[in-house]
Each structure stands twice: as C-alpha cells, then as structure tokens.
Amino acid sequence: MKESIELLKTKAQALPRARLGFFPTPLHRLDRLSEQLGINLYIKRDDLTGMNLFGGNKIRKLEYLMGDIVRQGYDTVLTYGAVQSNHAMQTATACRRLGLHPVLCLNPCSERDARNVRANLLLNRILGAEVHVVDYVPDEPEAEMKRRRQAMGRAHMDELARAGRRCYELPSGGASALGSVGYVMGYAELMEQCQALRIAPDYVFSATGTGGTLGGMVGGHLALGDRARVIGIADSPLDDDYEQNSAELCNGALALLSSDARATAADIHVDRGYYAPGYEQPSAIGTRAIHLMARQEGLMLDPVYTGKAFAGLLDWVQQGKVKPGSTVVFWHTGGVSALFADREITGPIGEA
Ligand SMILES: *Cc1c(COP(=O)(O)O)cnc(C)c1O
Predict the structure, then answer these.
(1) What pLDDT does residue 113 have?
(2) Is there an atom of ligand 1 within 6 Å of 183 CB?
(3) How far apart, in whole angstroms, are the C-alpha atoms of residue 262 and residue 251?
(4) Does residue 275's CB lie within 6 angstroms of at least one atom of ligand 1?
(5) 283 part of the active site
(6) Which residues contact 124 (CB under 8 A, 6 or more apart)?
C-alpha cells in the first residue's frame, strides 16, 4: 500500500464532519450468487448508511459537506435534483438532523406530475422540506432545464436572504471535492474490512451519475494502491467530459486530504452500456437484476441506479470480462425508495 489507511484517517480528522450515518456499513458475502456466478461476490451495504431507512451514498458526502456548512454558520441549505432525487431527500434528512432548513429545487423527470406525492417526494413532505418544482417543458434540452432550475433556485435564495436567512447553495448530487472526500474515506473503510476478511478485491463495481462517488472511490484506490479495478456503471448517457470531471473531483478530494496521489481521466473507468433507454427509465435487464438479487439473496436493489449497475456486473461476468474465481465487490449505493415510485420509474417489477 502506498499510503496507509491510518494516515488517511488521521488526515480526514482535520476536516469538519457532521456525524450523520452509521459507519462502517456492513460488507458481506453473497453465498448463493457467488456460487451461481462462479465468483467471490461481496456487497458493500451503503443502502444502510442511515440515518433512517432511506439512506444511501449521499450520506457519506453530506457528512463532510454539512460539517463545512455548519461550521460556516449557515441556517438554510438549498439544493437541486429531479423530483425523485435521492440526493435531495437525503439532504433534507441531514438538514433536519442538524436543525437546518431544507429547500429543494426539483425538476420533473420520468414522473411528470409533481402532485403525485410518492417515494422520495413523499419523504420530502414528511420531512417538511420547502419544495419548489420547475414546470415540465417537453423536449427541452437538459442544459436549458438546468438553467431554469438554477434561476428558480437563485430567486428563492434572494428571497431567503431578504428574510434574514443564511442560505448555502449545494450542487446537485452533492458533487464537489469535499463531498468526494466521503468516498475516499468510504474506500478506505472498505479496504480495512477486506483486510479483516483476508480478501483482496479484483473488482469494485458501483453505479455512477455525477461521478462524485466514483471519483472518491478511485481516489481511495490510488492513495492506497490496492489491486482492484474500480468500475462505474453509468445511470444515464453522461457528458463527454464525465471522466475529466470525475478525475477533478477525485483530485480535489485527495488535495483536501493532503495526499500526493492524483488521477487523470484515464483512471476513471465507466461503462455506459447499461442505462438504456435512459435515466429514470426502467429496462428489462434492470428488472431482471432486481429480481435476481431479491430472489437469490433477499436484498433490494432500485430501478434507477443499483439495478442497472448490478445488471452491468452480471454482464461483465457472463462475457468473461470478470474471470471465474475473481473477488468482486458490488457497492450498493442505496436508492431503494424508488421501488415505491411510479411505474414510469419502476417498470413491471411487480409482475412475474
Ligand atoms: C446519486 C446516486 C448515485 C450516483 O452517485 P454520484 O456520486 O452522483 O455519481 C448512485 N446510486 C444511487 C442510489 C444514487 O442515489
């Protein structure tokens, strides 16, 4: 190992951190699927980060983001996402835990009717978050929607400032160098658990969207110098500069931890082969992966991220890209509340 886990931990302690989740999350073997697939399959349970039943990967990011926000004395946090955004819901949860006021600026995606209060939108209501939703415009380019969404957010921030509030603007997905520190440290946590189990993963698979989570994992991997290949399975087409952005998030996080390791875009391995037909749109391979995990192991995956990511892992094994006997970690990033979203998002998971 290039840098020790202990050294990384010591460096992370210098950063302000809000204690939100329950760590370490479990790492355990999936015996039945291991046997079926002819590999050694482990699952890292970041669906169990807490603080409530509906945790997920954003909690690790939010521990560092919120630590900084609280230290700077903000009383309100405004963030962005799709109507069923896991990040928005987990931000609202974190705000409540810390006594801050959550403001969510959302856009209709697969679910067009924001009056249909289910899944994360329901949780946001229960949490009492201030929710604003931009109008749905058919065939609008994503960049234009994001511009309108941010304009709405900035207008609400002005209003909040006039009401005397100190409002922090958090990017969608919590995608920032400080957020990715949560996943550098998450990767160190995984490696510590692997050492205790006397295993050395050949592969680590994770769903990826903004690249903040994957960038952090790659940062942990480069700092520690373990043998694993860290693979992101895309949840959507992803911009052409995804690899570059993810490497920058990685390097920003490593710099905050004063580590000398650095990534280039070539260190970011992402497979865009499994998101079709689109973000938040169900697919046959995703449905099959959800059923397989539930029926062989009794565990729940989600239709937007982890179902498709696991479908990618299965395909890598079936194609022989992952050799028989390999040790593979599937990183469960959460999102399971989407099982209770509309059929536009879930697809026919309840049939057959
Ligand atoms: C947000 C999210 C991701 C993607 O994380 P990024 O850091 O944006 O790449 C993956 N899985 C789930 C369940 C998520 O909510």
Answers:
(1) 78
(2) no
(3) 6
(4) no
(5) no
(6) 88, 89, 92, 104, 131
